[in-house]
Design brief:
- With 116 residues, the protein is mostly helical.
- It has two domains: 77 residues, Helix Hairpins (Orthogonal Bundle), CATH 1.10.287; 38 residues, no CATH class.
- Helices cover 66% and strands 7% of the residues.
- It has four helices and two strands.
- Strands 1-2 form a two-stranded antiparallel ribbon.
- A hairpin with a 4-residue loop joins strand 1 and strand 2.
- The longest helix has 22 residues.
- The chain starts with a helix and ends with a strand.
- 4% of the residues are buried.
Length: 116
């Protein structure tokens, strides 16, 4: 059975292979160009979400993930750096409490309390 993590790894490999197939040297893309592509992909997701096109929004959001991986490559981020960053974000999330943060009822998100 394919797990989400297996599928993400397959996506990472496929993205790498795509760049190589078109002669794009992995890690040579300028970060600013990778960022521009990421912004384009996010705009596409936005259009689908605002159109209430759930299936298309899910599909396009995976393109965002692929493009984010390409940005990481352009930045020269190592697996170790990414793992460390992911763990830091998880720790930051785990440290948020009702004392320091609150729910934004309009957006249904967690935000820092004013003055904290």
């Amino acid at each position: 059975m394919t797990t989400l993590y297996t599928a993400m790894d397959e996506l990472r490999i496929s993205s790498h292979d795509l760049l190589e197939r078109f002669g794009i040297t992995v890690g040579v893309q300028r970060p600013v160009d990778a960022l521009a592509k990421l912004e384009e992909e996010v705009r596409e997701v936005r259009v689908e979400v605002l159109s209430a096109e759930r299936e298309r929004a899910v599909f396009e959001s995976v393109d965002v993930l692929v493009t984010l991986m390409n940005l990481w490559r352009a930045l020269g981020a190592t697996d170790e750096e990414l793992i460390t960053a992911m763990r830091r974000v998880a720790q930051k999330n785990d440290a948020k409490t009702a004392e320091t943060h609150e729910c934004d009822p309009i957006r249904n998100t967690v935000k820092r309390k004013v003055g904290k």
